[in-house]
């Protein structure tokens, strides 16, 4: 439905996005994640024909954003960052304007406006001036404008920013319920949002894809570069040293509990938590650790792989050391994109 | 698909009715034109009182059409130069400032649809204001002896002149995100185009003549004198076309630049 190939946008010296390649398939809800300044808004502005890319190609429903902007505009609904609205208009007129702009006649407009008001729960403010509404309601007006006329593709730039928890839940539900019916790309900084509402996530950082995949896939992928937590009864310093010597371990960290006496002279045996980091997380790592503990005659009370949350992955991905390179390009093999691309353009 | 500008046109008209700038512009317009109308009538009655004396001194003969009708329409045109930029200042600048321009560009409009819709909306209001000032014309007919054809030409000419003003104001609004800057720019542009002919000596030829013929004043004064010439109408239509075109270009260039 949306296909981005090698997209680059430069603002003078600033390279906002560099060689972005990814695809959003029909019916998918794609979470577009990244820290401030990653290039999310810039990408969405290119998709909505606000400005053209410096190089590369982007198509929406088979239409090129540079060559066929008019056709692209027909199939998208867009809610820009910060939800700019005509504050001097009332809710119904603003929605009617958007429906009119999309080329619908009077009867259709009324139906679409009613539908959008219903879907976004704006019934009790339909005649109120937008500038007088609370932020949450304005956000919903923005959403209503985007979905008016039932566009095939929705592009939402930070749709839940600044809402209270109840409204966030409502908006997420609204978006979640679109899965299968509409193709949605939504940007966010909030990871649970992606886990809750999106079928797939693309994480970008400094204008490049850092990782992509389903939330579950990302979590498992990342586990390979993660950590093992052990609880061992034994002399702390000796344990630390021995664990550090096991093949594949990059770093050992003793979790110091609050109130622990730091008696470093007497390496007495006690129960302690350790975190073992490894870069490659080889399969023989865990047996190796167990064996070491047993060999020294210490007691291994517990050992488990710490499941990373998407939060950890995000921080890891955007930190400078990044993640193994294979993840960055996992979603963009030429063969798979071209076949699915054909399928989606046939469908439209 | 011919009327793609219509949604914009309707939305702009609706927005104007809730915009303070619109009411300020209307108030300024009717206050100034009303004031000057009274002034013109007073000075005319004074001149009529001195008719004998003026004749003796060899001054031109007083004439209601020349001394009242032309003056009234001339001053209406003149005040529109202040009022139109106030009306047009928000058209594009405000959308850029609040970010609604981003919504607009994601809707199926071409730049030309946007420019035309906005132009026609502002022009409709200006034309309505001019129609409102026809009230002065009724007073003149009721209490004076104007030459009706001159009055008709001046009135219709005024509508044509105003279209060029609006196009220039709209262009100014596309150059900035600040309404105030847009209003000042619009006013300065209008003033430059208006006074252009004044810096040219009457005897000028060549380039000087061309500059004179590009001036708003040169052409609009033909109308207020009651002359309906095709070349003046063509000039104003050309100005409208040129500035609407420039506005489109300005939107397009800024899109490539940002
Ligand atoms: N109009 C512009 N002119 C110059 N630089 C720009 C412009 N728009 C964006 N940039 C730069 O491009 C980069 C990407 O910005 P963008 O707004 O796309 O980030 P983002 O991912 O949306 O960030 P955020 O999460 O803060 O919204 C930033 O470094 C920004 O400063
Ligand atoms: Mg952004």
Could you describe the 3D structure shown?
The complex is a heterodimer of chains A (348) and B (258). Chain A has 13 helices and 14 strands. Chain A is of the alpha/beta class and 348 residues long. Chain A folds into two domains: 240 residues, Rossmann fold (3-Layer(aba) Sandwich), CATH 3.40.50; 84 residues, Alpha-Beta Plaits (2-Layer Sandwich). Chain A has a six-stranded mixed β-sheet with strand order 6-7-8-3-9-10, sandwiched between helices. A four-stranded antiparallel β-sheet of chain A has the order 2-1-4-5, covered by helices on one side. In chain A, strands 12-13-11-14 form a four-stranded antiparallel β-sheet, covered by helices on one side. Chain A is elongated, with a radius of gyration of 25 Å. The longest helix of chain B has 30 residues. The chains are: A alpha/beta (348), B mainly alpha (258). At the A-B interface, α2 and α3 of A face α1 and α6 of B. The structure holds adenosine-5'-triphosphate and magnesium ion.
Report the strand count of chain B: 0
- Which CATH class of the largest domain in chain A is shown? Alpha Beta
Chain pair sharing the greatest interface: A-B, 30 and 25 residues
Give the count of helical stretches of chain B. 13
Could you estimate the helical fraction of the residues of chain A in percent? 25-40%
End-to-end separation of chain B in angstroms reads 30 Å
Mean pLDDT of chain A: 82
Largest sheet of chain B: none
**Low-pLDDT sequence parts of chain B:** none
Please tell me the overall pLDDT of chain B: 87
Shape, principal axes of CA atoms of chain A: elongated
Number of strands of chain A: 14
Main-sheet strand order of chain A equals: 6-7-8-3-9-10
For this structure, the quaternary state is heterodimer
Bound small molecules, by name, code or SMILES, are:
adenosine-5'-triphosphate, magnesium ion
């Amino acid at each position: 439905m949306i296909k981005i190939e090698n997209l680059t946008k430069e603002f003078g010296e600033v390279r906002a996005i560099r060689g972005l390649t990814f695809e959003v398939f029909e019916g998918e809800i794609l979470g577009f994640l990244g820290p401030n300044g990653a290039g999310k808004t810039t990408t969405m502005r290119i998709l909505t024909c606000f400005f053209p890319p410096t190089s590369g190609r982007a198509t929406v429903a088979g239409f090129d954003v540079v060559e066929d902007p008019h056709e692209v505009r027909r199939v998208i609904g867009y809610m820009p960052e910060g939800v700019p609205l005509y504050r001097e208009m009332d809710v119904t007129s603003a929605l009617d304007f958007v429906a009119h702009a999309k080329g619908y006649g009077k009867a259709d407009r009324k139906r679409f406006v009613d539908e959008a008001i219903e879907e976004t729960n704006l019934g009790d403010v339909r005649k109120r001036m937008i500038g007088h509404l609370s932020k949450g309601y304005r956000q919903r007006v923005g959403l209503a404008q985007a979905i008016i006329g039932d566009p095939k593709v929705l592009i939402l730039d930070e749709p839940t920013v600044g809402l209270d928890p109840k409204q966030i839940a409502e908006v997420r539900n609204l978006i979640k319920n679109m899965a299968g019916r509409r193709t949605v790309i939504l940007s966010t900084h909030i990871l649970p949002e992606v886990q809750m509402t999106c079928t797939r996530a693309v994480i970008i950082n400094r204008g490049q894809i850092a990782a992509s995949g389903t939330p579950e896939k990302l979590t498992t992928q990342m586990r390979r570069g993660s950590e093992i937590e052990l609880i061992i009864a034994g002399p702390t310093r000796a344990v630390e040293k021995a664990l550090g010597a096991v093949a594949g371990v990059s770093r050992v960290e003793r979790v110091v509990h609050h109130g622990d006496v730091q008696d470093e002279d007497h390496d007495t045996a006690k129960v302690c938590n350790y975190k073992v980091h490894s870069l490659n997380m080889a399969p023989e790592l865990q047996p190796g650790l167990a064996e070491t503990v047993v060999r020294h005659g210490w007691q291994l009370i517990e050992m488990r792989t710490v499941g990373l949350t998407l939060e950890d992955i995000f921080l890891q991905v955007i930190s400078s050391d990044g993640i193994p390179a294979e993840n960055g390009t996992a979603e963009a093999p030429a063969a798979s994109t071209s076949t699915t691309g054909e399928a989606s353009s046939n469908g439209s | 698909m011919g009327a793609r500008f219509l949604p914009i046109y309707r939305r702009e008209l609706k927005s104007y009715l809730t915009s303070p700038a619109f009411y300020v512009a209307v108030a300024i317009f009717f206050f100034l034109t009303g004031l000057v109308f009274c002034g013109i009538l007073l000075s005319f009655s004074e001149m009529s009182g001195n008719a004998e004396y003026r004749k003796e001194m060899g001054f031109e003969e007083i004439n209601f059409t020349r001394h009242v009708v032309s003056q009234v329409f001339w001053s209406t045109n003149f005040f529109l130069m202040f009022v139109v930029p106030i009306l047009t200042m928000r058209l594009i600048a405000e959308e850029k400032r609040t970010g609604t321009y981003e919504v607009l560009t994601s809707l199926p409009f071409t730049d030309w649809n946007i420019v035309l819709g906005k132009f026609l909306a502002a022009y409709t209001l200006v034309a309505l204001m001019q129609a409102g000032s026809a009230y002065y014309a009724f007073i003149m007919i009721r209490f004076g002896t104007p030459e009706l054809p001159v009055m008709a030409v001046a009135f219709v000419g005024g509508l044509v002149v105003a279209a060029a003003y609006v196009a220039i104001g709209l262009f100014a609004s596309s150059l900035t995100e600040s309404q105030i800057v847009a209003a000042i720019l619009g006013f300065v542009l209008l003033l430059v185009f208006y006074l252009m002919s004044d810096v040219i000596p009457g005897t000028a030829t060549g380039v000087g003549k061309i500059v004179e013929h590009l001036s708003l004043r040169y052409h609009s004064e033909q109308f207020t004198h009651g002359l309906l010439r095709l070349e003046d109408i063509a000039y104003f239509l050309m100005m409208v076309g040129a500035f609407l075109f420039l506005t489109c270009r300005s939107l397009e260039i800024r899109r490539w630049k940002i």
